[in-house]
Amino acid sequence: GGRGLCGANAQVVAVKAVRIHLVWFCPRNFVPPCYRMMKTRAGNADQTEEDAEGAKATKAALTSMPYQCQELILYGSVFADNLPDLERRLTGLCDPGSTEFHEHDLSFSLRTGTDPDVTIRLRRRFNVDSFNSHQWQFRYIGGPEPDQKCPVIVRKVIDSIAYSHLMMDFVKTLGLRMDYEYIAKGTVWTNGKMKVVISQIQKTEKAGYYDQSNLKRFSDSYLVEMSVCLPDSAEYTAV
């Protein structure tokens, strides 16, 4: 989707029935260890030890790629009448250009009994062909972490991409239960690492039916989200 995180360090989950295969996107200059070994055998034998050490270093760097980050986020809302003013302001403050999106979001939770429930979000593109497409964004969202030094919501998140034509069956096998779903349509702006999302939220009046006759807006207001993701161990400071 337009809000998905699918960069060089993104985690990809390919799901077929209940089998899960994890694949990491490699950096552009990454050379697979097997190719390095073949190249070494065909070339100078004196380079064997050097290439082997390089392969170990590459493997170590690959397995240490962060898959979890801390998200700092603020929520707000704006009336539809004031939306053009906000968009003009963002156009002047943010990076050139913006991205429109139209997505189907589902929120699931895992009941733990004692600890706070585990929250998982599923997201996919919403359009005419969206229900023939089996690619989803998985997002684990941790609970808010109180911090008096930071006047925003701080939480741990994990993003991954999943592909399955049996996604609902798969989430049931994980013990997840759907809490709610909605359709979000809006625009994304960026300013460096910061992301600003403005969206209008719709709900379906009949579960499983997503044609326009069944979709109703929650309100005349637009949801505004401003967030930035930092490495899990990074310190954040006021800007």
TrEMBL record:
Its main location: nucleus. One of its GO terms (biological process) is termination of RNA polymerase II transcription. It comes from Trichostrongylus colubriformis (Black scour worm). One of its GO terms (molecular function) is transcription coregulator activity. GO terms for cellular component: core mediator complex; mediator complex. It is found in: Nucleus. Component of the Mediator complex. This is Mediator of RNA polymerase II transcription subunit 18.
